[in-house]
Amino acid sequence: MIEPEHCTLIIEKYYREIFSYCYAKLGYSHHSAEDCTQEAFVVFFTKHERLDETDNIRLWLYRTADNVIKTFVRKSPPPAVSIEDSPEALDIADSGGFTEDTDSPLDILDAEERQLLELYYDSDYGQRTAAAKKLGISLPALYRKVHKIKKKLRGVK
């Protein structure tokens, strides 16, 4: 049997992280995420005796949360929630971005570099050979050019 002090430590250490994971996986539904997070911890505490000393509790909780989410979604799909309507999602989401007043780092790229990046990121991994042919270059050349563009963009502050 796990000691109450140890239970509290595990919950304090991992609850928010597992909740955030469930929250994102369940379409930013606060109540569904709360239910799944609690269920993941219940499963953990009922089966913790089976774990070895070397088992990673964090990893085990993520796997359990994933299984709980799959079961939850099968039984009752989460309601669609708009990110704009969810204050928690706005807190989690990146608050950055570019306004009309600020310049985008992409502004330093010329038209050819922008076209290359758009084509590269719009194509799936298996379609990149076709993208390279469309640009009139080989696949390794496409990868080299994308790498150079990324290095150029990293230099921008």
Describe the structure.
There is one protein chain. The protein has helices at residues 4-25, 30-47, 57-75, 87-92, 111-122, 128-135, 139-154. The protein is elongated. It has two domains: 4-92, Rna Polymerase Sigma Factor, Chain: A (Orthogonal Bundle); 105-154. With 157 residues, the protein is mostly helical. Helix content is 64%, strand content 0%. The protein starts with a helix and ends with a helix. The protein contains seven helices and no strands. One of its GO terms (biological process) is DNA-templated transcription initiation. Pfam families: Sigma70_r2.
Query: Which H/E pattern describes the elements?
Result: HHHHHHH
Which regions contain 5 or more consecutive residues with pLDDT less than 50? Answer: none
Q: What composes the largest sheet?
A: none
Number of helices: 7
**Which structural category do the helix and sheet elements fall into?**
mainly alpha
Average pLDDT over all residues: 79
Q: Just name the CATH architecture of the largest domain.
A: Orthogonal Bundle
Number of strands: 0
CATH C-level label of the largest domain: Mainly Alpha
Cα Rg: 23 Å
Specify the helix fraction band: 55-70%
Shape: elongated
Would you give the CATH topology of the largest domain?
Rna Polymerase Sigma Factor, Chain: A
Whole-number tally of structural domains: 2
Cα distance, first to last residue? 54 Å
Question: Which strand-content bin applies to the residues?
Answer: under 5%
InterPro entries: Homeodomain-like_sf (IPR009057), RNA_pol_sigma-70-like (IPR039425), RNA_pol_sigma-70_dom (IPR014284), RNA_pol_sigma70_r2 (IPR007627), RNA_pol_sigma_r2 (IPR013325)
Protein name: RNA polymerase sigma factor, sigma-70 family
GO molecular function, one term: DNA binding
Keywords: DNA-binding, Sigma factor, Transcription, Transcription regulation
